[in-house]
């Protein structure tokens, strides 16, 4: 049976999340993760469905793409890594605006996995776009204490005061953030958050200074940090490193094999923070941007 491409439906999102989770493997590239879908869920289930495209063959999901600010972020099953025919179908859909994947004109693809697809994109006139730095910390050895008091919000323990602090740090860490308690609750009600936690770090005065959300993909698979931020009034004190270490410890407790993140290479401060927290920096990767 031929490959089909379709828009996701709200009812199918749980199945899609599980497919993406299974594709995560230690030592592999940081590709689309259940946590990426989970973080997008703050805008609501219908918005996630509208952003997601699914490629399947014989009823089996083989690739998932999520539109994110003009970039389609791809997750590809390991079994079709070198499948040239499948990659050609993906490229055809990505290149044809009539398919409703990318709009006419310039568009970008985040394809960090899929040897055959990356080769076709490279040879098909898609230019290298913004460079990103992937980082990972193996979670075999015990993770050191982070030095902060850390409060945890998971799907079963939601404390309003901690939740308010989580939202406040997010808004203070990222310019123009529109994060709200209501958006957090939408995210926390979604399937990916069943294997996720939000951590809020507090300094010695009891002020909320940093926060992160960590997403497990299941036992023995890489977990993801998305997003992580330090309150703008509390920068320069090592709290970024501390909350990163706390995130690694939380993922280890959840059974993740490693903690992963990918950040723009231009954000040298963030890269340095992750390295200082025991993350290994890997060679830069770029998106592919259509030039014609």
UniProtKB/TrEMBL annotation:
Source superkingdom: Bacteria
CDD domains on file = NAT_SF
* Domain called N-acetyltransferase: residue spans: 153-292
Classification via PROSITE patterns: GNAT
User: What SUPFAM superfamilies does UniProt report for this protein, alphabetically?
Assistant: Acyl-CoA N-acyltransferases (Nat)
TM helices/strands, residue ranges: none
Q: Which InterPro entries match?
A: Acyl_CoA_acyltransferase, GNAT_dom
Q: What is the protein's given name?
A: N-acetyltransferase domain-containing protein
- The organism is Actinoplanes palleronii
Q: Name the lineage.
A: Bacteria, Bacillati, Actinomycetota, Actinomycetes, Micromonosporales
């Amino acid at each position: 049976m031929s490959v089909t491409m379709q828009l996701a439906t709200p009812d199918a999102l749980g199945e899609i999340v599980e497919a993406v989770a299974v594709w995560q493997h230690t030592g592999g590239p940081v590709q689309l993760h259940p946590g990426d879908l989970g973080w997008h869920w703050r805008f609501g289930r219908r918005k996630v469905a509208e952003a997601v495209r699914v490629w399947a063959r014989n009823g089996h999901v083989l690739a998932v793409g999520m539109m994110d600010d003009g970039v389609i972020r791809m997750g590809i099953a390991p079994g079709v890594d070198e499948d040239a025919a499948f990659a050609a179908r993906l490229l055809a859909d990505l290149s044809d605006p009539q398919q409703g994947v990318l709009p006419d004109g310039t568009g970008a693809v985040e394809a960090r996995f899929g040897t055959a697809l990356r080769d076709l994109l490279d040879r098909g006139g898609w230019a290298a776009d913004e460079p990103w730095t992937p980082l990972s910390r193996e979670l075999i050895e015990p993770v050191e204490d982070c030095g902060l008091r850390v409060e945890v919000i998971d799907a079963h323990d939601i404390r309003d005061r901690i939740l308010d602090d989580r939202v406040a740090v997010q808004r203070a860490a990222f310019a123009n953030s529109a994060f709200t308690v209501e958006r957090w609750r939408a995210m926390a009600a979604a399937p990916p958050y069943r294997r996720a936690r939000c951590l809020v770090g507090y300094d010695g005065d009891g002020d909320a200074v940093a926060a992160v959300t960590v997403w497990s993909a299941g036992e023995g698979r890489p977990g993801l940090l998305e997003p992580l931020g330090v309150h703008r009034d509390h920068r320069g004190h090592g709290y970024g490193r501390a909350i990163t270490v706390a995130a690694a410890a939380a993922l280890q407790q959840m059974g993740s094999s490693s903690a992963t993140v990918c950040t723009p290479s231009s954000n040298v401060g963030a890269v340095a923070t992750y390295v200082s927290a025991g993350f290994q920096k890997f060679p830069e990767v770029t998106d592919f941007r259509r030039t014609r």
